[in-house]
Amino acid sequence: MLFRIGLLFIVAYFSACFSEFVDTPDKTYFASKEELNWTDAKNACAESGLELVSILNTKEQELLETFLKEYQLIPEYRWNGYWLSGIRYPNGTFYWDTTGTKVGEDVNGWALGEPNNGFKREHCVEITLNKGASLLAWNDYFCVEERRYLCQSPRKDGPRGQDLDDYSYLTEKIDLPVAKDEYIIPLDFVNTRVQTPYV
Ligand SMILES: [Ca+2]
């Protein structure tokens, strides 16, 4: 009896941990159902014993794309992408937060014209449609925006990144031009997409 109760508890615990992810048999990649800002997404992965996805080489880019295609998780439109672990460090260079390696060192997945650091505030890396095409690509974007996110099982070997002392610079309040309580982001990527106000 105690064994059964213990088993039920364990199942319930892990079900709760992974309930925020799309139910797929994949043991490497996990796609969230919810949308969070980048820092919250990083923490959400960690709370489930996972880490935000980093892409270190062409094979990993292909594996991730295969996962998204296989489970029909490809973004339907440009603004429906996923956070990855890449961030612009205070020194201006992009690193994969989870491995501490430079973004784009062995595989260049940036969309055409990216990273463009719009308003000098696009510090986080997302993977989404490449300017409306069916191809997936990376884009730097505002970390305060809420996105779905991709976690992966922690790497068993390879480089490990160290957490920064302070991630708050990523999600600091952004003062953008305001029009009727809405922000207009005049990026060539989006032209006149209407944003909800940052808070
Ligand atoms: Ca960008």
UniProtKB/TrEMBL annotation:
PANTHER family: MANNOSE, PHOSPHOLIPASE, LECTIN RECEPTOR RELATED (PTHR22803). PROSITE patterns: C_TYPE_LECTIN_1 (PS00615), C_TYPE_LECTIN_2 (PS50041). Residues 24-152 form the C-type lectin domain. The keyword Disulfide bond applies. InterPro entries: C-type_lectin-like, C-type_lectin-like/link_sf, C-type_lectin/snaclec_domain, C-type_lectin_CS, CTDL_fold. Keywords: Disulfide bond, Signal. Gene3D superfamilies: Mannose-Binding Protein A, subunit A. It holds the Pfam family Lectin_C. Coiled coil: none annotated. This is C-type lectin domain-containing protein. It comes from Rhynchophorus ferrugineus (Red palm weevil). Residues 1-19 form the signal peptide. It comes from the Eukaryota.
